Amino acid sequence: MESPNQTTAQEFIFSAFPYSWVKSVVCFVPLLFIYAFIVVGNLVIITVVQLNTHLHTPMYVFISALSFLEIWYTTATIPKMLSSLLSERRSISFNGCLLQMYFFHSTGISEVCLLTAMAFDRYLAICSPLHYPSVMTPKLCTQLTLSCCVCGFITPLPEIAWISTLPFCGSNHLEHIFCDFLPVLRLACTDTRAIVMIQAVDVIHAVEIITAVMLIFMSYVGIVAVILRIRSAGGHRKAFSTCVSHLIVFSLFFGSVAVMYLRFSATYSLFWDIAIALAFAVLSPFFNPIIYSLRNKEIKEAIKKHIGQAKIFFSIRPGTSSKIF
């Protein structure tokens, strides 16, 4: 039975946002631009892949699935950040906080699994090019994508369920810009359950991250070994070009995630906590559409083709209006 000073929090108040109205607006404008760019950029990639049949290959199916997840990954946190920047009372309900943590981590873990599947896809394409079409069939590609999402949406459920049962006492001021496991757990009453929970969360995150990194690392060890056996310089460039985008996205996302979630007992200042959180929650998704569109020749050509078609469609040819009237 809970003691009188151990109650379930009804809401949390974000205390990491600037209190000055001018500073809030200065933060709001670029964040709004970044969020709009993430949504529009990823929608463009999804649309281009769907409209061009020659892009209906496993690699582009994975890229469009990643773009879809990126939209929801950022939507879990950024809209609430934007409203908090312009609001006097920067609060979120306890249930809203649990939902935000769940969708942020479920889509994030789904992305981790998908990036791992993409590494496996590149390994098959480069190391077994003759068997690749028969192994990486559309059915297997769909199964891998769905499995990544199922894994992502199931994995955080136990953590969310445990946190929902914890008693909270004292301050309800959350020293962060969105709800995340460790900042919320710091507000839980300091008892054995909370300490064990923090340790369990650390171990779960470590296993998820290290497993994905090891699988991707082993895939690229095999890829590099095959590429080094290719004699022509053109062959080297072509093989590496199919992996560079994935490696950049992997490095950006996993680098910041590892710094945040593989800390264990280490603590950072509030400034660095927020900076690292922004790196994997905002900046990494911001760069992904740029990386996959600017570094990918086929997507660039498809975008240019559709822009050209749109210009022709919306342009008014000389004499059209006079013929109408």
From TrEMBL:
Q: Where in the cell is it found?
A: Cell membrane
Question: What family is it from?
Answer: Belongs to the G-protein coupled receptor 1 family.
Q: Which SUPFAM superfamilies match?
A: Family A G protein-coupled receptor-like (SSF81321)
- Its source organism is Pongo abelii
Q: Which residues cross the membrane?
A: 21-47, 59-78, 99-120, 209-228, 240-264, 270-294
Domain G-protein coupled receptors family 1 profile: where? 41-292
Which Pfam families does the entry mention? Answer: 7tm_4
Chief subcellular location equals membrane
Please state the gene responsible for encoding this protein: OR6K2
Give the protein name, as stated in the record. Olfactory receptor
Q: Keywords assigned by UniProt?
A: Cell membrane, Disulfide bond, G-protein coupled receptor, Glycoprotein, Membrane, Olfaction, Receptor, Sensory transduction, Transducer, Transmembrane, Transmembrane helix
Q: Which GO terms describe its cellular component?
A: plasma membrane
Per its UniProt record, what InterPro entries does this chain match? Answer: GPCR_Rhodpsn (IPR000276), GPCR_Rhodpsn_7TM (IPR017452), Olfact_rcpt (IPR000725), Olfactory_GPCR1 (IPR050939)
Which terms does the record give in the GO molecular function aspect?
A: G protein-coupled receptor activity; olfactory receptor activity
Q: What membrane topology is annotated for this entry?
A: Multi-pass membrane protein
